Amino acid sequence: MSVMVGLLPTHAEWAKHGFPHMTLVYCGKTDSFSPTDYNEIGKVASEVAKKHRSLELLTLAHRVFGDQPEQVDVFTLRSTTELAAIRSRFLQWNESEYPFTPHVTIGPRSSYVPEMPFSIVFDRIIVKWGEQDLTFWLNPT
User: Residue 106 and residue 32: Cα distance in Å, rounded?
Assistant: First the structure.
């Protein structure tokens, strides 16, 4: 089981899987964290949600990420200074071995249907801790 922080989209009709999101940071495996760490990450997510409004990111392209046989179709997204500011709050927990490329996973390779949305709006932040999660609405004002 793993820990991640991500943003959840308002609509995900383009997704061909059950958990549409954009990962901000992959934090590693749950067994390397204490419950105190979970609380701390959740506290930062709550603070971020109060400070930041919904985030609209332009969709750039359809691409394929990953190695065989686990390749997935994704939409890459244009980064913004606000996205960078949100992500920076969680970098101390980042354990990803990959460079950050803003994207959302559509589904397994070949699940893409050529109807790419112009943009994707994210209105919630999630801290996922194995099967548990904390979700906070971004500031609506």
Answer: 29
